[in-house]
Design goal:
Alpha/beta knot; alpha/beta; 5 helices
Length: about 150
């Protein structure tokens, strides 16, 4: 399983998820451009000393990510988008070992082109009066469920 961040805006969220990847042993993909300068200094501040322990790959664009995914199909399976524009709760979904959970930008989600490319769209059911859950917290919830299913945590 992998977690992909589509053009993340907030370095602290990216750092938090890199740290989570190190702690729970899953890989991440950062799909640029980011809304911040992605360099070792910024990520070290956000991800603390976990950067050496996490497996992550940077992609220059959505098209670069798709091309890389196509050439590494044993590692990159279904694209599973977390979005408020879905009807299936993530808790009803059967995750597979090589799924890629895709998180959109904190400020804008993902464009229609991405929605049309993914294999599944899932949501986190929440209070209808609330606007959104922090992206890093949302990702942690979904990754936790996926790992529970895949690794029987």
């Amino acid at each position: 399983m992998r977690l992909a961040l589509f053009q993340p805006d907030i370095p602290q969220n990216t750092g938090t998820l890199l740290r989570l990847g190190a702690c729970l042993d899953f890989a991440l993909d950062i799909i640029e451009p980011c809304g911040f300068i992605f360099n070792e200094k910024a990520m070290r501040r956000a991800g603390m000393d976990y950067l050496e322990q996490v497996s992550y790959r940077r992609h220059n664009s959505w098209q670069d990510f798709l091309l890389y995914r196509a050439n590494h199909s044993e590692e990159y399976g279904r694209l599973v988008l977390m979005t408020t524009h879905a009807s299936e709760p993530y808790t009803d979904f059967e995750f597979q070992k090589n799924d890629v959970i895709l998180m959109g930008r904190e400020s804008a989600g993902v464009p229609d082109e991405v929605h049309q490319t993914v294999d599944a769209r899932l949501l986190i059911p929440m209070n209808p009066n609330a606007r959104s859950i922090n992206m890093a917290i949302s990702a942690a919830m979904v990754v936790g469920e996926a790992l529970r299913q895949i690794k029987n945590f």
